[in-house]
Structure formats: C-alpha cells, structure tokens
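Supplementary notes for students who missed Thursday's class. We covered one full example, reproduced here. Read the sequence, then the structure, then the short commentary at the end.
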Amino acid sequence: MKITNTGSEILRNFSPQMEHTSMGEKIWITILLLTLGVAGYAFYLQVAYGHGVTGMRDYVVWGIFIVNFMFLIGLSYAGAIIAGFLHLFKAEWGKPLIRLAQLMTLASVIVGPIFILLCVGRFDRLYHLFIYPRLQSPLTWDVIAVMTFLVGSFLFLYLGLIRDFAVYRDSNLNIPKWKHNLYRWLALGYNGLESQKKLLLSSQNLMAFLLIPISIMVASILSWIFGMTLRPGWHSTIFGPYFVLGAIYSGTGLLIIIAWYTRRMYKLEKYITPQHFDYLGYIMLVLAAGYGYFTFSEYFTSWYGSEKWDGELINKLFSMDEYGWMTLFTNVAGVILPIIFVAVPKLRKPNSLFFVSAIMVFAMWVKRYLIVVPTLLTPLIPMQDTRQEYIHYSITWVEWALTFGGVALFFLIFTIAGKFVTFIEVAELPQEENVKTQNQ
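Structure (token representation):
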C-alpha cells in the first residue's frame, strides 16, 4: 500500500496510541469501567425493584432516560449528516473531520437506544417489539428506523476504514500478531488497485447518499412521537424540522469539542487547523440562528394562542419559581452565546469555540429536559388528593448513575476505537508529490 508523506506523519503521531496503553490511559479506562460498574448496580436495582427507584411516577412517565435518548440519538443523526455532506461534496478542508463525525455517529447510536430500553418496565417482553410489532404505532417506526440507521452508520464508517486497515496491515507498527491478523482480515484484500478504489468510492458515495435522508427521516419520526401526542408544547407541526435542526446544531457543537480534544491530544495542529474551527463555527452560527427562530416560534404561538392548557405550560417555562432559570439558560447559552462568539472574529478562536460549544451542548441537553418534563407535569385533568412526590419529578441517584454510565460508555467507545484506528484518514489524504511506501 502506498501512502503520502502526510499520511505517514499522521500514522507516526497515532502509532504510540495504537501500539501501547499508557498509565494515564489505564487510569482513564479504569475510571470509565468503575462508572459503568455503578451504572450496572443501578440497573440491577431498577430491574429488581421496578421504576419506583427512579423519579418517574404517574405524571412524568418519561424522565431523564428519554431526555438522554433524544439527545444522543440526535447527535448520531448530526454526525451522519455532517460526514455525509463532507464526503459527497468532496470538501478538502473537511477530510480530517469525517472520521470523527462517523465515530460520533456510531457511539451515539449505540448508547442512545439503551436509554429508551431503560424506560421499558418488562425486559422479559422486550422481544415482543420485534415479533409482535404494530405498524400503526410511531414507536414501531422508531425501532425500525434506529436499527436501520445503526447498520448504515456502521457500514459507512467501515467502508471509510478499509483503506486504512490495508495501511495498518502493511505498516511496521509494533503491534501483536492477532492485531495484525485482524487488520488483514478487515482490509478485505484491498491493495489500492484502481478497480478497488472505484468500487470502494462508489460504495461510500451510496452510503453517504442514503444516510443523509435516513437521518432526516429518523429524526422526524422521533419528533412525530411527540407531535402526534395531544399534549401542550408537543402537538405542533414544527416539531419535525425543529428536531432535525436541533440535532444537527448540537452535533456540530460536539464535533467542535471532539476536534479540539483530538487536535491537542495527538498534536494535530497541522491537520486540524483554526480554519476548521472557523468553518464549523460558521455552520454553528447559521444553525443557531435557525434554531433560535424555531424556539421563538414555539414560545410565541403557544403564548399568543391563549389556550389555557398551553398557557399553563408557558407559565411553568418562564416562571423563575419553576423552570424559568433553565429556560433562560437554554436560550442564552444555547443560542445567543454561540452566535456572539462566532460573529466576533476576536472570539472565534479554537479554545473559545471549544468553551462555548461545551456550554451550548449542555444547554441543548437541558432544552430536551424542558421539552419532556414540564409538559408531562401539565396534564389536562390533574389528579386529585395524591402525594406530592407522585406529581413532581426529581431525578434520583439511580437515574444519574445510569446517565453517567451512558456518558462513560460513549467515551469508552472512542477510547477503544483510538487503540485500533487513527482518528484521521491516512490512506487518501490530499495528494503530495512524494509518496512513501510503508514496509511490507
């Protein structure tokens, strides 16, 4: 396999990570595994004692679990759309970001559905979703759509890795024999022949072309589950584009965070440059403006309509005694702050964009919380003479443990991926005059 000097340099930067596990990495992996262990114990308690160990009750039948599902599955759609467009439009500047977006997609679509399963009360009947599906139910659509998206995301990532697997196979990496054999098997006999290049490129183009509309459709199906429900704040025709735009927006912010970390961790300043952050910032600016418009429309139409049911929800969202501070945070930190940081050139720096993206991503998670919980706490016919803890929702340590367990699993997938592949493609980077052949 032939590889450019640029690809060789990137492989040298990543080779220590792929060849050895440092003490710092062992500590990091141990922390992640311990977090997953606590989450496993919390899961045992939920299975053994039921949903009573969570904050979910008669009013809030969906809690933080569905919030996490909405957030993570939205990130996966965003990664697929960004990677698909960068690939199809052959954006040279975006090549170092494609694999990061693909890994973000796969990790999110693996972790996200776990949280929707945590809402299921009878795990022994879980297989009924597949053998007794009801096509009339949007939930069945969501199961089919997410499974299809998971397979497509894996194939899109794998097709982009085949060339690099061939490079790892033919390189002089100091890796165990089993790992070398794994690369040889995963490379599928790829040797860089023109016929192989054409077949692989057409396959990647097809997957990218399919994943973009699939991502939009799956995000829309998730929004329909809410929009087709007669609940205040949910029963809205704008939820489809609102969810799609919000997913891409939060995913762009997470991609900035991942790119910033990868750039510093592997000393890739030469390949992930300030220009990449500028371009991602511009994308985030446009999406922030669009998302702000949809958010304003959501609040304004509910308020102006003056329906009592919607009015109660709006009062909850803007009352400082209830959810007002959270609403203020999501709009300022989630919309206004990113626009300011990107629009002002002096603030549009990699470190600043990392900081504002981290705040924005958290604000978008809080926004999902505000979509779910306040609405469920605003029933059309309130229950009478019931205990307050059955009416008001508060997150228990079991739910937090499972939430942090999902975050740990997300980072663990990225950590494990870094032991096997480079986060930037090495086989087909922009061509240079000098081409280097790796040791066979």
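Commentary. The mean pLDDT is 86. The chain has one domain: 2-381+389-418. If anything here is unclear, bring it to office hours.
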